[in-house]
Amino acid sequence: VMRLTKPTLFTNIPVTCEEKDLPGDLFNQLMRDDPSTVNGAEILMLGEMLTLPQNFGNIFLGETFSSYISVHNDSNQVVKDILVKADLQTSSQRLNLSASNAAVAELKPDCCIDDVIHHEVKEIGTHILVCAVSYTTQGGEKMYFRKFFKFQVLKPLDVKTKFYNAETDEVFLEAQIQNITTSPMFMEKVSLEPSIMYNVTELNSVTQAGECVSTFGSRGYLQPMDTRQYLYCLKPKKEFAEKAGIIKGVTVIGKLDIVWKTNLGERGRLQTSQLQRMVSLENRSVWGWVGHSA
Asked: Buried b vs exposed e over 273-294: b needs ≥16 C-beta within 10 Å?
């Protein structure tokens, strides 16, 4: 079993010196001869090569877990009725990830049965990939074995929300989103899906020279442990605005939809649980921690 992930950019540690130093031009020449460096920019740490993953790596909530499964017949006999099954065990459920549950008629020596599985991770905590193989030998004996691969699913984002209830029945939502991974993220989309009683206006852009420009600038990168604040205004729909008593009693506001990309375009997506405000006769601001659902 091998996890399928995108490669990473190869990095090297440039070692250089001035020509008047004892090594002279030796270090610079070695860097120019190194095939992993960029021609003309040898002192940069990033090169032109890619590196395959050297370990299992981290898996975050909202990402897609992909794995390559291969069953190889390393005996000198033909085996029959081979059935390969892949299940993912989480803290709350067991999921069948096999593309097909049909048995393969036979597997000759030095031949393989290959499969690629995909699963969008929707729970944090311990996950166990269970690979089970059953087959029949030439003598008619039924054989069976299993292998287990344990990994942890981590939380990628920390989300806090703050509500302000205006006198005009408008509700302002401030969402603080923090990248708690060790790698930069490209924030592709952060939107609020309002409940049925509200329309939403995003307040995360300004108009400059007739163009709508993001308040976060042209680059949507969120560095590790950095936080961004997103602001939204929710207004009651016309058919509900006339019923002030109903609007004041509404606690469910909507949910945030967050889409990001990590190194080399690996995508992740999270939706929060329904955001709820505290109902009060007075205007007040309320902070809350938000749970996630992938």
From this structure: eebbbeeeeeeeeeeeebebeb
Q: Are residues 278 and 229 in the same domain?
A: yes
| Residue 19 resides in a domain | no
Task: Please state the pTM of the whole predicted model.
Answer: 0.74
Is the Cβ–Cβ distance between 269 and 294 less than 8 Å?
Answer: yes
Q: What's the CA gap between 126 and 122, in Å, rounded? A: 12
144 and 68 in one domain?
yes
What are 2-33's pLDDT values in tens digits? 888 777 777 777 777 777 777 677 777 777 77
Distance CA 236, CA 171 (A): 9
Same domain, 179 and 139: no
Burial 42-76 (b: 16+ CB within 10 A, else e): beeeebeeeeeeeeeebbbbbbebebebebebeee
